[in-house]
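Issue: ligand-bound run for adenosine-5'-diphosphate - logging full I/O for the record.

Environment: standard queue, default settings, no custom constraints.

Inputs:
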Amino acid sequence: RPVSTETLKARGLSRAFAGVKAVTDVSFDVPAGRITGLIGPNGAGKSTLVNLITCQYDADTGSAEIEGVDLTGLPRHRIIDHRVARSFQNLRLFSGLTAFENVLVAALAAGNSRQRANAIALRELEAFDLGSIAAIRADNLPYGARKRLEIARALAQDPAILLLDEPAAGMNPAETDDLADRLIRIREDRRIGILLIDHDLRFVNRLCSHIVVMNRGEKIAEGTPEEVRGNPQVIEAYIGR
Ligand code: ADP
Ligand code: MG
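Outputs:
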């Protein structure tokens, strides 16, 4: 497994829906070996930004480059060729498949042989404490396990950059702490770059050395947790609603 050194560079990304500016001219980096936070009030444009990077939506302007390749404009299923993977805010598991099969499908889709995909699926299930429930259908798993499975599935594609859209949403505090521990281990072991969207600021502050803040489609601040916390525009964005 090669150690990641890639940086994802989002530059000037914009997208409007029927005249509503969801994302306006947003630029930031997701470097290897760092968990970068992306926060902002509901409707700030966080999910849309991820959807632009991974080609779920077409960008009106801007680019998302990794290793000199612009991902925007690629067919969605080709994103993983450039080692970018994501989880979805609303889970997108195959409900009729087992936990193991869900991860296996992702490893196969990333171009691995059946034998190698098997090994990868088992490893990722173990990394998220899902080994003992590998044979259970996704729709019969408890919510917290389904959230972890969504991440395990993204990691089975061996990304250099992992984009996580509200992975701790709906988890209880113990599950959230456990997920934080697992993400820290993944960052340390694999040195991948992670973009972490979440509303739980305690969770974000624990994991992220660098945080990007959005409000009403625009990036309004970026910096260390301390810098961001003391920024008047950030305080205004969170209180002014
Ligand atoms: P966040 O993830 O920060 O809560 P979103 O990116 O989901 O915000 O939404 C940003 C804005 O874009 C919102 O006003 C939302 O209603 C709008 N939006 C997002 N996706 C669509 C879509 N597919 N069609 C129309 N409007 C959308
Ligand atoms: Mg969202």
